[in-house]
Amino acid sequence: MATSEVINLTAVKRDPTFVDRLTPAGQLLNRCIQCGTCSASCPSAHAMDLTPRQMWRLVQLGFQDEVLHSKAMWLCSLCYICHVRCPRGIPLTETIVKLKQLALQEGIAEWRESTAFYRAFSDVMRRYGRTKEIELMVRYFLATNPLTALGYAKLGLTLLARGKAHLELPRLGGEGRLDRLFERVAELEERQ
Amino acid sequence: MRYLLYPGCSAESSALEYKTSTLAVLEALGAEVEELEDWTCCGASVASTMSDLLGVVLPARNLALAEQVSNGRDLLAVCSACYTNFRRTAVAIASQSGLLDTINQALEVEGLAYHGSITARHLMDILANDFSLEAIAARVQRPLTGLAVAPYYGCQTVRPYSPFDDDQRPTLMVGVLEALGATVHSHNREAYCCGTSLLTTKPEVGLQMVGEILEASSPADCIVTVCPMCHMNLDSYQDKVSQLVGRPLRIPVLFLPQLMGLAFGLPESALMFKRHVVSVSPVLARLSES
Description:
Chain A is mainly α. Chain A has helices at residues 18-21, 37-41, 52-60, 64-68, 81-85, 92-105, 112-128, 133-143, 153-161, 179-191. In chain A, 48% of the residues lie in helices and 0% in strands.
């Protein structure tokens, strides 16, 4: 949806319960007065397809598909500047985390360069209990475009030479360090 | 002063020099620090993106471990993302009834339970508030006279859960840097975002953010930071940022305890400047001039 388009609200499929899925902020999002402080503060708003202000308006109106398919949330780096500046006291940054969560759960296909990062990071964390930067990057590049790894080759070699990164073979078999905890969390979430 | 250290994944690997310099500086100031055993990842920005519950259970696992051995000690986090996750979890437990029970049903598989008694604190808070500036100045053997330092706090160090400084215009580093004898170069990107994982997923956007911080800091001799993620982004991507802006930007980036260690006369084995991507030599040369 182009941001300059005139939208016929009655003709578009909307989900009025969208705000309720965005816990814990939920109904607080209806306090938004569209002042635009979030857009003016955001260090990556210039690269978004929807500005933060536009995105929150679409959330209020229940445009779930438009929001979940947009690139905007994946440009949020969790700097919390919109969150602390929001004059209506809405926890905006944590609500963006919730939007990312819903987009991942619904298997939204766009912006794979971002979603693959979260999946690779989560898998490494679960397997080893701690992050392993090189394995994370290898998994990420394999899941996206392995050729982009070339752009990082020089930096990778520098980091290896400085002792900031280490090559080790991945441990793929056997139980992961946090498998049981991740499984229990999934069980508990299903019960809720 | 006694603390329990949670290094977190970065300070245990890519930013090992942050951990070793933190331990050396706290010891020099007379503090006792013990590392938490068997700690696991705080979840970074990823766990809460996978699920609400995972986002609080992973920090809580470490808080529960800390509680077993704390004996009144605070948990010292050196990474701003770890710190934010611990504080966010504490706020969630305090504001959502029943959440602690659910967390403990999950922690059961690890043989752990959390009772909510641990306070997590950031290294910035501890260095600036638990030791007087006089005590820091008294430990200085090699004053940083003539060295212009650009403070860089980053975002999650000061927001949204930090009670210890202004969340947009922090100033705590000023007193510490002046106690070391350095000159503070204030700028308008001190609490700006380093771009975090955007450097990997959306490099064109992340590099621009790093560029703004490097440019705002560039009149100084070096940047000083208190987060391993910020350090990685500011130190490692200067070549790529220089290409993007079309002119060379090159400025050493030090962790605050490394700079303190330098002033305290601590050895290279604790400060590990050789690990940096951008050479720290100009800073050392500047100090030997004065």
